[in-house]
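INTERNAL TRANSFER SHEET
From: sequence group
To: structure group
Subject: DUF3618 domain-containing protein

Please process the attached sequence and return the structure record in the designated field. Keep the field labels unchanged so the import script can parse them.
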Amino acid sequence: MSDTKARTAEQIEADIAATRLRLASTVDELVDRANPKNVALRQVEQAKSQVFDEQGQLRTQKIVAVAGAVVGVVGVLLVIRRLVGRR
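Return from structure group:
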């Protein structure tokens, strides 16, 4: 700190107490964020937001796209398996 005035012991103690409170609050927030139950809940909410829009309606375009990709991958794997099986 570049204060030109000297601080009293009470001011320094008050600054330390305020810093301690901010640090405790930050630690509590980090513990809450890192709690496995909370992490799982956030992941579930994120997954739901991929399938449902803000009004709770299914996002059919995304579902169709994912289903199409899955069908495509399965098709490619079946073709590869058939080609490898001929040897």
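Handover comment: The radius of gyration is 28 Å. The chain has a mean pLDDT of 90.
Transfer complete.
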